[in-house]
């Protein structure tokens, strides 16, 4: 009998789940990955990978059997263009898969359950200006979450707390702030701003304009994927049961993001603003005080370094696409 810890990563076919699976396998965990689709750009590192629809309770029961720790990353989600136009689908699918996953974990005697929430739970009324005050964990209430996606996340945070209080299931809850990096969706409508901007610049010629959603003065902070998985792991090892931010606390505007990526690409890029496109809140940044206190750590990889790695990966994908289009 081995004492190797057995882990389930839900959403292991997705961006963060795929990276986390690799990280955990490298650290000696036995990992089962579950998703409704295979990872898109690279084979999974999981010891076992199951294609299951986690909106169904019976599939969640199967997924959590003989598992010690669950990392719940499955969600129906995307960038701002997707979450503003698919609210019913998002809340239906994500509520079903999250409720069924935590209940199945309880029934199967899982020891620890990790839930991935989002900065989208923070109230809109605290994010009305570009020079917004960084968001602290206690700012979540009184609640005014992002319509649809954010409310489902906030509700599930509370479900985790109730499962701990009433059933003794040990839970961890993280609020991610814009995670980006290689192997993330970069086209098709679900991509987030860093990936979309990298793709547009990779496709542009020196001197071209690219389309920017809004006036480009909206602000965000961005966290590189390697820091994200390190933070997830550290939080899972900690004894902190309250929701906690995980992100960078360097806030920049979308215009600045475009300028950084243009420099990485070595192209002069102009901006053409489309103010009819969804922009989300005006400003958002993470207050990392609690992260530093609890984890004795904070994200390490600079935005420039993370964007350079991401840009070069997306540029290679875009060039492959061009090449196959020419040779077909
Ligand atoms: P992602 O879309 O790449 O991964 C989610 C995965 O869930 C996908 O592979 C998808 O196929 C899978 N999934 C969807 N429906 C399913 C179903 N019915 N059954 C099984 N699997 C299903 O997203 P991500 O960026 O890797 O995000 C992971 C988690 O982190 C999500 O909960 C997301 O809401 C949260 N989050 C991400 C960010 C970010 O910036 N990427 C920010 C805040 C929160």
Quick recap of the structure?
The protein is an alpha/beta fold and 328 residues long. Helices cover 40% and strands 17% of the residues. The strands form four sheets. A seven-stranded parallel β-sheet has the order 3-2-1-4-5-6-11, sandwiched between helices. It has a two-stranded parallel sheet with strand order 7-10. It has a two-stranded parallel sheet with strand order 8-13.
Could you explain the architecture of this structure?
By secondary structure, the chain is an alpha/beta fold. It has a domain at 2-180 and 222-246: 3-Layer(aba) Sandwich (Rossmann fold). Helices cover 40% and strands 17% of the residues. The protein has ten helices and 13 strands. It has helices at 15-26, 57-64, 80-83, 87-107, 149-167, 193-203, 225-237, 254-265, 289-295, 303-327, and strands at residues 6-10, 30-35, 48-51, 69-72, 112-118, 170-176, 179-180, 209-213, 219-221, 223-224, 244-246, 251-253, 270-274. The protein has a seven-stranded parallel β-sheet with strand order 3-2-1-4-5-6-11, sandwiched between helices. Strands 7-10 form a two-stranded parallel ribbon. β1 (6-10), α1 and β2 form a beta-alpha-beta unit. α6 (193-203) crosses α10 (303-327). The protein is globular. The model has no long low-confidence stretch (mean pLDDT 96). Nicotinamide-adenine-dinucleotide (NAD) binds at residues 11, 13-17, 35-37, 53-55, 73-77, 93, 97, 116, 118, 176, 178-179, 192.
């Amino acid at each position: 009998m081995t004492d190797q810890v057995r882990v389930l990563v839900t959403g292991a076919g997705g961006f963060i789940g795929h990276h986390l699976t690799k990280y955990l396998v490298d650290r000696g965990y036995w990992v089962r990955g579950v998703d409704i689709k295979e990872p898109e750009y690279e084979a999974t590192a999981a010891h076992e990978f199951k294609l299951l629809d986690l909106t169904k309770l019976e599939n969640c029961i199967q997924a959590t059997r003989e598992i010690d720790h669950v990392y719940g990353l499955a969600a129906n989600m995307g960038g701002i263009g997707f979450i503003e136009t698919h609210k019913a689908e998002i809340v239906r699918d994500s509520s079903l898969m999250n409720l069924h996953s935590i209940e199945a974990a309880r029934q199967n005697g899982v020891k620890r359950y990790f839930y991935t929430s989002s900065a989208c739970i923070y109230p809109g009324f605290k994010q009305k200006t570009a020079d917004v005050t960084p968001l602290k964990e206690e700012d979540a209430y009184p609640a005014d979450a992002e319509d649809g996606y954010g409310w489902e996340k906030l509700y599930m945070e509370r479900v985790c707390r109730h499962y701990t209080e009433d059933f003794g299931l040990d839970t961890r809850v993280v609020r991610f702030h814009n995670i980006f990096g290689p192997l993330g969706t970069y086209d098709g409508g679900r991509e987030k701003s860093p990936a979309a901007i990298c793709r547009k610049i990779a496709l542009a010629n020196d001197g071209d304009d690219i389309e920017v959603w809004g006036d480009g003065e909206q602000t965000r902070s961005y966290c590189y994927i390697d820091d994200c998985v390190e933070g997830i792991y550290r939080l899972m090892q900690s004894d902190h049961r309250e929701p906690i931010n995980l992100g960078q606390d360097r806030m920049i505007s979308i215009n600045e993001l475009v300028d950084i990526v243009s420099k990485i690409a070595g192209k002069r890029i102009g901006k053409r603003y489309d103010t009819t496109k969804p922009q989300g809140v005006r400003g958002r940044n993470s207050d990392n005080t609690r992260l530093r206190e609890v984890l004795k750590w904070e994200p390490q990889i600079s935005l420039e370094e993370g964007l350079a790695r991401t840009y070069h990966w997306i540029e290679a994908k875009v060039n492959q696409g061009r090449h196959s289009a020419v040779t077909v």
